[in-house]
Every structure is written in structure tokens, then in C-alpha cells.
Write a structure and sequence with these properties.
Elements (H helix, E strand, L loop, with lengths): L1 H7 L4 H17 L3 H14 L4 H13 L3 H14 L4 H13 L3 H14 L4 H17 L17
Helix pairs in contact: 2-3, 3-4, 4-5, 4-6, 5-6, 6-7, 6-8, 7-8
Amino acid sequence: MDHAVSSQNSTDPLICAENHYAMGRTLQNEGSFAEAAACYRQALITRPDFADAHYNLGIILYKQGSYAQAEACALGTLQLKPNDADALKLLGKALLKQGKNLQAHTCFGDAMRFSANFPPALVQLGEAIKQRSISENVTIWPKGTNHNDPNL
């Protein structure tokens, strides 16, 4: 424990960012989302290239209903880790909540491409397709069906 206390007083940006991030994770796991978000923001001030801090801040913002800010955090993560399936899923969920269904659809597809057998993205992709077809008034016709048939 003495090491943790002494490292908190360090001026090394890496150690400071790691300490803020670790505290944020603890607070997030305890359900103290506002305090955790503040810790992640501090970590990002010290180290803007901290992908995991961007991602976890995005999760909190998404849970709080700040979908545009969650989108920005997911994009920040993806700038640092372009093939991060979890960040793509978060981005897709934030986009979906904002009615950006086509973009969300693409994100979920990319998440599945980058991480094979990624069931959470598959579930979200299904939701994006459903929302897209509702918002665009799209009807999916079975193969071989004449969609101009007035009897349908």
C-alpha cells in the first residue's frame, strides 16, 4: 500500500495517469460513475493517448445518456486502437441511440470483422438493422417474391 501512496505523488505522467485510471476503475465498479468519470478525465489530461481511459469514460457517458460524448470517447479510443471491437461496439451503440442507424450498422459489422465470434456486436447489429428498417421504412422481401404484387 505504501507503494501506491508514494506513486500517487509522482510527477511521472505515466504513473499519474495510471493512478487516476486505477481509481476510476475502482469507482466505476462501485457504481460511483461521476467520480470515476472525473478520474478518467484527469488521466486523459495527463496522458491524452490513454485509450482505455477514453473507452471507460465513454462507457460511463453512454450509461448517463450523453451519447454524443460517448461517441467522441469511442472515436478517441479508435484513433489509438483502430481495430478495437469493444470500442466499435460502444461507438455503434452511441450512434444507434442518436438515430445514426446506418453508421451504427457499419460499426457493429466492423466489430464482428475485427473480433470473430463477438456475440455482443452481433446482437447490436441485429438491433441496428431493425432500427434502420423502421426509420427508413424498409421492407425486406423474401427472395423470389414479387414486391409489386398488389395482393401482398
